[in-house]
Records
---
Amino acid sequence: MLRIEQPQAYRVFPQDEAGRAEIAVRVVGESDRMQARLVSGGEEVVPWTSLEPEKGKAWAGTLRAPMGGPYRLEVWGNGTARVSGLLVGDLWITAGQSNADGVGALSEAERPSRLVNAFYYDDRWGRAEEPLCWYNEATDPVHWGVGAAMREEAARNDRNFRVYGAGPAVAFGNALSRATGVPVGLIVCSHGGTSMDQWSPSLRGEGGKSLYGSLLRRVAAVGGRVRGCIWYQGESDTMVEDAKDYRAKMRDFVATLRRDLGNPEMPLAWVQIGKFYGGDPSWAWAWDLVQDQQVRMDISGELGRAAMVPAIDLELCDAIHVGSRGQRILGRRLAEVAYALMHGGELPWGPRPAGAKLEADGRTIRVRFTGRPLARASRVWGFTVEVEGRPVPLAGCRVDRKDPHTVVVRLAAPAQGETRLWYGQGFNPVVSLRDERGRPCPVFGPVTV
């Protein structure tokens, strides 16, 4: 009887610059000789190749496979064995906190694809299917939700009773593979409720007891070469004491991750945090502050080969988590950004503020945007204005009839004093500004005008 030790079924091998990958094969079993090949459907992709004998009745060799799949590995010796679902394509890290995990209803989740597999927390490859995150099955203790003694029971209960967990990653993988024709492997690394301090690269020495150490170990376990990363995090940094430092921590995280992975140009597609149906109004400013730092990082380009998508327009399924429909939309947005970062395309994704000016009449603010022309609208929702720290009523807000890159905000009375403007201020703003393709504007502000 033959036993294939390598590769795991459903593994995704990262393609090299030539669009191929080396698939290491290791088989255990008694035989006079051993051969292996790759098959796709009924077509032979890599012909029968002899494996070399090793100690302990083992045989090993390498098959050089082209980008594509799914492939079936067939082994022949004193008997036969096979593993299926193998892909050659691109590996993407998916990381962040609970909105990266996903908390949407599984009944409405994105359907799996034959061209998108996932490396789950237990170091097992499988078809990428929601939910991707099973904390209590994780190899690394940083992800365990309960103590070691209770983990087996907790994992069993998760499998038996879980009805939520749909996130953006499967939709991202599906959309990206459709756009590029390249299979996708998702390296699942996210964990709910985690802050930038918990993701700090300074904790790498703790290995699997830290989020960053676990991420590095998992990337190394699948070959060490990734195409990019998708990231959705920030809610846990909106506590008052943490909000002001978010930008610096994010810059350090991204720069260090690229350096540690040996990929200084690694694409990063990431999400600006969205709404929150709750929270103490006295610290809503900290929520706004994190969102504003996020959009400023995107506009400045300080994260290098990176781009952001907003989530402010997406419906929630509870107080803070994007629902299944919104997660599918978000996954497609991230895929559009990832494609543009890799192959060239339209960035930024959606409108971005480029400045605001208070006219001489003291009651007209003209807000300029880059990107595609704005969708024509006689009424735009989402702008708020403060004068000398006090909210003031608006007389109207619309896209300029003559200049589709400008929004005209009219105050009910002339401003007298320091005037500041926001778009999407607060935990749960009503917002409507979009470009001509329907792409929403991210939250920003305050902007002094």
---
Amino acid sequence: MELTEIRFYVLDKNYESKIKFSLFRFLFAAILLLNSYLIVGQIEKGENIFGIQVRGIIPVSFLNAGELAVSNDSITFSMSSASGYSVGGIIRHNFSKMFTLETGIHYVSRNYSFNFKHNIQGIDDNSSVNLVSYEVPVQWLLFIRLGERFYMNTLFGVSLDFYPSDVTKNRDKYRYIIVRDSWINVALTASIGFEYRTKKSGYFYLGGSLHYPLSDIGFVRVSYIPDINDLSDFVNLDVALSGTYFSVDLRYFFVKTEIKNEPVIYR
């Protein structure tokens, strides 16, 4: 790559990052606007509730989360957008009627589909690999009351993402490896959804989320090794892995049960 091309590449990447960050600034401003002009739901100060969450990760094709491809004269390697699921627990603490924090820990399983083509050797092979991570989000939560028991929730915050190890997949004459940049990464999170609250059966929530790491979580390397004893045709191809994903979220919160103390009667 020539010096002029490198400069344009850097400028494009910087401009792209500014656009993405502006998206989150706009979303944050919209949340503040809703807080100012809509009725915030009445919640009990100092209340702690526990819930569980299940998310379905949806393949998308924007914000660097779509299909990625890299090639040379004879090899083409492509990787699809992630799909998968996440499960975990949530703790919600209400500091006031307008300020609520959520945190917890989530197990995340993402599946990537790979395609490897070698034009000369006639190889056209599909495979997949699973990437596991753990997330600890801290999110600011606003309730917007829409009815007696119906609320709209908006969340915005950060998440500490933990990647326990690299992932390797061996195939005939080649292999894939997902190499993490670090065992820990920081991501921005944003969610919107609707919650229905019952008195005795708990809180039910349906919504969607965006998980956006501040930097690439690593890269995918495909290594072509036609003959282990002859490395003259050995090839490495790398492609960056952003880690951005969208999800559909289902949540359930357990309500506190009031214990009524029966009067003690002495005889």
